[in-house]
Amino acid sequence: MGNSYVGAKQTTLSQSVVMTGVGVHSGAPVSITLHPADADSGINFLVSKDGKDVEIQAHCDFIKNLTLCTILGSECGAVVATVEHLMSALRGLSIDNVLVEIDNGEVPIMDGSAMPFVRAIEEVGLKDLDAPRSFIKVLKPIRVEENGCWGELLPYNGFRLDVEIDFETPVIGRQRFNSDLNPGVFREELARARTFGFMEQVEGLWAAGRALGASLENTVAIDKDKVLNREGLRWDDEFVRHKALDAVGDLALAGSPLLCSYKSYRGGHALNAKAISTLLADKDAWTKVSVPAVPAHVIEHHSDGHVGDGQGAAVLSAANFAADRN
Ligand SMILES: [Zn+2]
What are the extents of the domains in the chain? Predict the structure, then answer.
């Protein structure tokens, strides 16, 4: 891709960018603005509650509900729903600090994938901040299980996903995504994968006042053994790619990028969140490491905001340095 983006420093957006859409659960129009943010501030959501501005940190400590989407909330009762695909885009592109202002309680679903967020972010581009990026380095295996589903965080010099799903419907069946991840892989292999749902569940959701904004514009709909969307699938294994996209966003709720390999079998938001909170609760299982300073002559600055493959290599070398220090 021509750009070598060295991931030693924290990043934010070069300027603010606005997006509009509908909330998949509320069905209501919503506008979000991604603002640049200071180093070490992380990803935060700015919502309004009883006329007051409230910030909600994108961290697993603030998860309120995971039934259908990821809902974060503050102590005062302010909430923000459906954060997962935006979180995935931010983490997938290695963006550390952003303030996400939302006017209507839910991140818009857009086309059901992370690509509209990726495009909006690339429109304004990223900038480095004068602070080293720090990672959560997994030191020992963490395993969580739930009703025949399991997830494992394993020590690894880099970030790797190995996600497998197994559905009865022949439309999906057994699918696996197994790859090292960097912004280039995220953008090309995962970002366009859409969320999916089963028609037999939709009526129940609508009756419960959920999924009111769900449509064939933003969801791959499966009815028994066929896909209802006229345009078909973006990949034959779009389903597992979306699960991997979700995992990137869910693991981002650790608050810092991870150095680990994450394996899951039939996982989802709840399992991914459980893996992260189990890890963070075990202080012997992880440590914080920073990327060592990179000599200036090897840094090539990206000027067009496009996030290329280079960062993956930098993260990998950072991980190797980090391993030496422990
Ligand atoms: Zn999803």
Answer: 9-325
Give distance in angstroms: CA of 66 to centre of ligand 1: 11
Q: Which residue(s) pair with 106 in the sheet?
A: 81
What dotted CATH number matches 9-325? 3.30.1700.10
Please, which residues bridge with residue 177 across strands? 163
Alpha carbon of 131 to ligand 1 centroid (Å) = 31
Distance CA 270, CA 276 (A): 10
Given the residues 25, 59, 85, 269, the one annotated as active site: 269
Q: Which of 271, 92, 309 is nearest to 191 (CA)?
A: 92
Report if pTM > 0.70: yes
pLDDT tens-place string over residues 281-301: 999 999 999 875 544 444 444
> Quick check: is 269 catalytic?
yes
Using the mean position of ligand 1's atoms as its centre, give its distance from the Cα of residue 212 in Å: 16
For the segment 170-210, what is each residue's pLDDT rounded down to a tens digit? 999 999 999 999 999 999 999 999 999 998 888 788 788 87
